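Researcher: Good morning. I'm working through a list of sequences from a screen, and I'd like to move beyond sequence-only analysis. For each chain I'm collecting a predicted structure so we can compare shapes side by side. This is the next one on the list. No need for commentary yet; just the structure.
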Amino acid sequence: MVKRRMLKVLLITGALLGATLVWTLFAQADDKPGGRSIKGAGTTMVEGGTGPPSFTPLLTKVAFHWHGGEGRFECLALAPSASAGSPGSGNFDTNVMYVTGEITSARVRGGTAVLRGTATVTGVGAGADEPFEITVRRGGPGATLVLEVSGLTFREILLEGRFQF
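Model: Good morning. Structure tokens for this chain:
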């Protein structure tokens, strides 16, 4: 009886250690040169737009790539120049923010990737060498991206395009 119990404990312990080792190797591979490729591009809509009081809608053109320990991130936020309900209010023709920068680290956990780096920001939140973090859920339309930069958080829903890794 004791041998059987000891065997079960050893088997469970071995399985847990093996799973931990595999998980660690896959997680570390994301940050190593030649590791996982993460990329995406498309058009998103920012949830809540500019927020109160005007709630002006915002569309973004976003693109990013990470592979071999290197990557870039680009995000152009556009708003309509005409106010809601007036002619032209559906034309997203005003550049309200542009974020361009180098991705310096990436981590994948299941269907989510977290990319970090520094960027130059123009327009809203303008600054140089601003740290940023993007959290991306893989997929096509309906996938999400959260951008944190310059003390601001933008929750975005992919309308067209694809985020993959």
